[in-house]
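Lab notebook page, bench 4
Experiment: in silico fold of construct C2
Operator: M.H.
Input chain length: 225 residues
Purpose: comparison with the prior construct
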Amino acid sequence: GADVSISKSPPQGTDIQRHYLQGFVAQNLHITHAFYTHPKILIAALNGPAVGLSAALTGFADFVYAAPHTFILTPFSSLGLVAEGGSSRAFVSRLGISKANEALIMSKRITCEELVSVGYVNGVMDVKPGEDDKFLELVLREVDDRLGKHLIPESLLGIKKLIRRPERDLLDAQGVAEVFGGLDRFVSGVPLWKGAVWWLYWVFEHKFAIAGTWYVIPSCGFALH
């Protein structure tokens, strides 16, 4: 799920740039790098809305399964921020430039139907909101069927490495550009008050549970993340 809480202002007298360098920049860069360099097969199971950085990171999943009521929302422009989580590259690659512009520049919600139409998700499970156990069961059944013992683990990992290889240097550079762009915005002070307004709007206008599950397919069996 997503932590959509608003960052607290630095204590009075704090070096603002250093504060966000040690917090936002370091943490954001680290988690994004961890996702796009992960050597094993990553599966995202989205049984509800994915918001912000959590939504952005789904762009690095090797396979994405969703519920019909799923949507992704990256409201960075509504918060006075810039794109983060590698989304300025991953979304363009996975959604296409038109939908990526809608998601990132317009802060538009991208529905499950739209995600299916552009090939962002690999499958939609027939579940209703609140049927979390059923959703998980269906996803695990699908994964076990498609990524079962009939496949050679070393081949899976070797193929993933080849697929991801051309993007590695580009993502390294783009990740740095994103976090320093975000740093500039935080130093300006805009995201703090804009974020508070947006969060209040979200709380009062939406009743969705932020839901999602990450899986890693190791060389044998599953690890739930």
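Observations: Confidence is low (pLDDT under 50) at residues 1-7, 204-211, 218-225. The first helix runs from residue 16 to 36.
Next step: discuss at group meeting.
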